[in-house]
Amino acid sequence: MARIRDLWFRTVKGPDGKPVKTKTIRHPDKGGSKDAKRWLAVWVGPDGKEKSAAFKIRDKAVKYARKMEEDAQRGEYIDPDAGKALFGPLALKWLRLRDVGSGSIRRYDSAYRLHLKVPFGDRQIKSIKPSEVLEWLRDLSKTHGHSTQQIAYIILCGVFDLAVADGMRRDNPAKSSIIPKPTREPHERASWSVDRVWAVIDAHAEPYRAIPILGAGCGTRQSETFAFAEEDFDFENGKVYVRRQVVRVGRLLVFKLPKGGKERIAPLPVGVARAVKAHIDAYPPRPYSLPWMQEKSAGLAAEEYTCNLLFRWQGDHPRRHEGHMRESSYNSNVCKPALAAASIIPPAAKNSRGRMRYVAANDDGFHMLRHYLTSVLLDAGVSLAGIMAFLGHSRRGKPVTLGVYGHVTEETFEAARTAVDQSLFRLRLVPDREADGTGTEQSGSR
Fold first, then answer.
1. pLDDT at 110 over 70
2. Nearest 5°: phi and psi at 12?
3. Which neighbouring-strand residues pair with 299?
4. For residue 442, what pLDDT is reported?
5. Is the dihedral of CA 268, 273, 277, 280 positive or negative?
6. Distances (CA, A) of 155 to 118, 176, 221
7. Which of 196, 309, 345, 409 is the most exposed place for a label (fewest CB within 10 A)?
8. Is the pLDDT of residue 407 over 70?
9. Residues 324 and 307: beta-carbon distance below 8 Å
10. Neighbours of 425 (CB within 10 A)
11. What is the pTM of this model?
12. How confident is the prediction for the chain on average, in pLDDT?
């Protein structure tokens, strides 16, 4: 039963046996604090134990005790002591519980350390107000772009969702109506034309020319293309298995599952297959080993993973020759020079340190080859379910018609192969080792 207690006075038996009120030592007149609170609200929590909180004003204590007991009866009880937990440990718990890939885990961890740990890490959960979140978000927007703002906001919002779920506070201050959710205005990217795609391909050095061909013809990401092995190609059935990607973890390069944490199968058009066969003839794959990173963790497998790697550095450099492809080196030494040669980005210029550097926007890189393929498949009428499956896009959260009933058939594969051959290779000649054994050039279309 909710009740209040007077902390400054207590009732005792007088000399005559009658009850008498006497002052306690907590009263200011007896050397107590001037801010001493007189009234103690007492109630019974959901666990059957008595809880209490002190107030200066009697009416506030009465109302608070009654409210807490009513909240317990309605199942809406929030323990006042629970909100004293610090934001930092709860954030680390939220990060530990994320069901995402290892790459996302690293981005979340970095964003927390750089943008959330200092302003909120040592604060009590219940003490953080919407106005403080708004101020933090506005300061962040002055120094960082939309992507950084979004991931930091996702973490902050997620931690407070966890606090609400665990009964640490009633509301999520990051979802207050005064706080605009950081979003990036969607903008349509203009798809590259066939001429532009081939201009980039032709500007690549011969050992690396099949890389953009695979990007444009099969829609593989850069990290997935670097990890292709000879055994991933089913030339007879016109399919390629996207089984892994190569990523950087600190200073270490590792293999891991493709983005999304699962393998996929993509169509292998005739023109792309001929280019890959020509590359294999010129640069025979060899076994190559890297550590395998377990998905949804930062741990590495006990044994290294070995495959007949397709693309390796060529040339006379003693340290790089026959080594695995590194994304940063490929972009700096191969891809960006090709983009400049195709007049897509400006030529290299000296930076503030006097070094020659290329400057490329996000819309002017390898990823645009995937956009080109998407446009080709959409124009050819290939089903959306097929396009998402071929490109490795998640169906999570999509309408049930697409997410459950959108099937990919052999006809879908054939339609995609035909679309690429008719668009990318319609008027293009590519080497065909099977024609007469001499590497003569044949049309890439069916």
1. yes
2. -130, 165
3. none
4. 44
5. negative
6. 14, 15, 27
7. 409
8. yes
9. no
10. 24
11. 0.67
12. 83
